[in-house]
Amino acid sequence: MGRAALGPATRRAAYGLMTLLGARPVALAGARLVGHGVVAGPGTELVVEGFPRSGNSLAVAAIAAAQPRPLRIAHHTHAPANVLRALRLGLPTLVVVRDPDEAAVELVLAKPFLSLGHALRGYARFHEPLLGHRDGFVVATFEEVHEDLAAVVRRINARFGTALAEPGPDALGAAGGAIAAYWAGRRGPGLPAVGRTARPSDERAPAPGAPDRGRLEAELSSPLLAPLRARARRSFLALASGR
């Protein structure tokens, strides 16, 4: 049965299970099985991870484009287990974070079968397992990735003793082509029932059937979402502060 034949409730349940198990090794086994992202391993030179729509693609592509040789980067599993594995292996690791309200809205626009509640819960489940390991990785906000990625790379070099080249205007310019090539080259159906997310360059063009952006942003004010918003924001602030 294809994803098109699955109802929204089934797909939401699959997403919920995926985020619930995201910090466990089974998440990485599943990622390898379906070709979802790149899992960290002994040969990895850098790990870049984050919740979807947080600047992952630009960070990976621009950092890679700035290097004088190909860099082995683990990325885009969108599972905290990949970060935890990187820490166990002692790998240089960057976690990108975005304001939870913004990230949740963008994820629902990309995956209209999700509600804001599902997205906010998924956001918290990604970040909370990392809170006790905050000293083990560098954190960059969505804004830093887009506006001053060179400073982020300097922090990575200072923290891990690496010698990564800092992305300049040329690397940032080349990142667009690299992002397109990465997304075009992905194979397989993506995560069972959940599928693949649209490429970030399409972020302002919602998926077919997506709700109105304005309606989603207004819905964030619902009292029913207040506990989830507070939970997600606590994890965001805990990671983003003191970076």
Structure description:
A four-stranded parallel β-sheet has the order 2-1-3-4, with helices on both faces. It is globular, with a radius of gyration of 17 Å. The protein has helices at 8-20, 25-34, 56-66, 80-89, 100-110, 116-127, 142-147, 149-160, 169-185, 213-219, 226-240, and strands at residues 46-50, 73-75, 93-97, 138-141. It is α/β, with parallel strands linked by helices and 243 residues long. Helix 6 (116-127) packs parallel to helix 11 (226-240). The longest helix is centred in the last third of the chain and has 17 residues, at 169-185. It is built from eleven helices and four strands, in the order H-H-E-H-E-H-E-H-H-E-H-H-H-H-H.
Short précis:
The chain has 243 residues and is an alpha/beta fold. It contains eleven helices and four strands.
Notable traits:
243 residues, alpha/beta, four-stranded parallel beta sheet, 11 helices, 4 strands, globular
Strand order of the largest sheet: 2-1-3-4
Structural class by SSE content:
alpha/beta
User: What overall geometry do the principal axes of the alpha carbons give?
Assistant: globular
Number of strands: 4
Count, helices:
11
Subunit arrangement of the protein: single chain
Helix/strand order: HHEHEHEHHEHHHHH
What is the beta-strand fraction? 5-15%
| Distance between the first and last residues' Cα | 45 Å
Q: Average pLDDT across residues?
A: 89
Largest sheet: 4 strands, parallel
The low-confidence runs, each spanning 5 or more residues with pLDDT under 50, are none
The level of helicity is 40-55%
Radius of gyration: 17 Å
